[in-house]
């Protein structure tokens, strides 16, 4: 017949298995609820209800902290289940199990997992009430895991944590929050165009821009003066008197025009004087032939 210690350890092992199964189920449930809550927070941010979202997002933060706590407790349960032989071998708690045992004792009454409370009661029967009180008081913080104590502390989340949660939710669901202004979208102006002082020797910012504009105006006036001078020089220029030697084609045209003008000059010379009688006689004689 098994001893009382062995029977107690057997009960602890059964409750540890049930606690692990319940912890995993609660984690899945909380994850599903967190997704729904995050979607609701994104809708609030999209509607411009940022203050309402800041208040409600604290529930999501607490749910995430509880999920992390359940993960830690699940690991401790698995550790005790794997080292169950150490529970049977000694009436006192083994140093390798002390942190896991006391962390479960400290966290069990502050969670909704009933199986963990059964494990706590069995472990208290195993190691005594003084051991249980030491775990609950957690004197000097040397017995319970610090991560378990932090996640069970009742404190409002920091403003930076709330802001970070809202920004991550908005980013995950494609919501433009916090809204970015035009200056933030376009970016900051370059340092050369921001006022940095009134030093004329080494100007910067707005003064440098004014100097650049003045230089540009001066260059334009100089260019206009150069154009006026060139126009004045062109107005004084005269047309060339000679265009160089005549080309062969021009010579041929001039010769043809001279031939056409020659008969007109002959007729003019004949019409100017009276025809000779002897010459007329010779023409008639030539016609008779």
From TrEMBL:
<dbReference type="GO" id="GO:0015031">
    <property type="term" value="P:protein transport"/>
</dbReference>
<dbReference type="InterPro" id="IPR005061">
    <property type="entry name" value="Ist1"/>
</dbReference>
<feature type="region of interest" description="Disordered">
    <location>
        <begin position="177"/>
        <end position="277"/>
    </location>
</feature>
<comment type="similarity">
    <text>Belongs to the IST1 family.</text>
</comment>
<feature type="compositionally biased region" description="Polar residues">
    <location>
        <begin position="204"/>
        <end position="223"/>
    </location>
</feature>
<protein>
    <recommendedName>
        <fullName>DUF292-domain-containing protein</fullName>
    </recommendedName>
</protein>
<dbReference type="InterPro" id="IPR042277">
    <property type="entry name" value="IST1-like"/>
</dbReference>
<dbReference type="Pfam" id="PF03398">
    <property type="entry name" value="Ist1"/>
</dbReference>
């Amino acid at each position: 017949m098994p001893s009382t210690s062995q029977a107690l350890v057997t009960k602890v092992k059964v409750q540890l298995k049930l606690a692990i199964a319940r912890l995993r189920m609660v984690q899945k449930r909380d994850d599903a609820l967190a997704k729904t809550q995050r979607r609701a927070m994104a809708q609030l941010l999209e509607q411009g209800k940022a203050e309402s979202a800041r208040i409600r997002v604290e529930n999501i933060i607490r749910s995430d902290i509880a999920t992390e706590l359940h993960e830690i407790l699940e690991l401790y349960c698995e550790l005790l289940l794997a080292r169950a032989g150490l529970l049977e071998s000694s009436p006192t708690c083994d140093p390798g199990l002390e942190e896991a045992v006391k962390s479960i004792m400290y966290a069990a009454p502050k969670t909704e997992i009933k199986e963990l409370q059964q494990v706590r009661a069995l472990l208290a029967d195993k190691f005594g009430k003084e051991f249980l009180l030491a775990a609950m008081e957690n004197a000097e913080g040397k017995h319970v895991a610090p991560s378990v104590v932090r996640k069970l502390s009742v404190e409002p989340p920091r403003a930076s944590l709330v802001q970070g949660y809202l920004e991550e939710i908005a980013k995950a669901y494609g919501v433009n929050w916090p809204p970015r202004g035009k200056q933030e979208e376009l970016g900051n102006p370059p340092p050369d165009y921001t006022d940095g002082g009134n030093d004329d020797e080494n100007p910067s910012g707005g003064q440098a821009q004014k100097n650049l504009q003045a230089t540009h105006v001066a260059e334009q006036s100089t260019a206009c003066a150069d154009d006026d001078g060139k126009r004045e020089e062109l107005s004084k220029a005269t047309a060339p008197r000679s265009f160089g030697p005549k080309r062969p084609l021009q010579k041929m045209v001039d010769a043809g025009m001279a031939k056409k003008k020659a008969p007109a000059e002959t007729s003019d010379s004949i019409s100017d004087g009276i025809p000779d009688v002897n010459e007329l006689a010779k023409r008639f004689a030539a016609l008779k032939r």
